[in-house]
């Protein structure tokens, strides 16, 4: 019985989808589902709708079936919308958190590269200063050695002169 009702429901839905297309199909589909549920409910309820006069039949259908279903559909739709909004907000927050994390990572990388660049420049400056100092000290040493060499030569020259003078005096 349930399988037959399900097949009828699917076929009804397919036919109604072709005929109405869009949002109205949800209401009609809901009514059809309710009618299929009525088949499983007590005979008293079915008879109350079935045995009523045609004008009353519509009002009873409206009162007993359609209005509560529309209310339920509206509630469930509102709940679905609220859930979708929550999911959207969560996904946006996750994206924002992800993009913030990426931004932080990029900033950290930039900081590290800038620090490395500064360190490299500082090392280059230090090496340049050291090379300047070493050049100056080498020049100073060279000039001192030249000066010492000249003094040494002058001293030797004077000693030679003194020896010659002393030798000439002895002779």
Automatic annotation (TrEMBL):
Domain of life: Eukaryota
Region annotated Disordered, chain positions: 42-64, 76-108, 140-171
Pfam families named in the record: STPRs (PF21107)
Ranges of residues in domain STPR: 80-146
Family annotation (InterPro entries): STPR
Composition bias type Basic and acidic residues, residue spans: 77-89, 150-171
Biased segments, Polar residues type: 90-100
Listed name of the protein: STPR domain-containing protein
